[in-house]
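Table 4 source record.
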Amino acid sequence: KIALEKLGLKVDAYYSSESNTNAIEISKNHNKNSVVFVDSIENLTLEKIVAMGPIDLVLGSSPPEYSSNASIRKSLIENKGSGHYFLYFNHILHLIRLTNKSRHIFFLCENSNP
């Protein structure tokens, strides 16, 4: 949010699909309730995304739980740990593309492994 403000970009709304309650409280404290917290990423539906849209920028990151790329790949296959969040991120991007029609969508998915 700070980076977008410093760039002087006009933002109509900020949405967050955060599952960590501590991170939510920190965000609420820093952003003075200017961020709308939506359902968990696993429960976001096309209807919910339509209600938020149009969406131009999506940022995502998995929790930093794994120390090697091999364990990340394994978590994608076995749906354990944080690797499956990447698959949800990709699914959400697909849903946004469906609703955005001809609008561009920009995204960044960060790998935050230690």
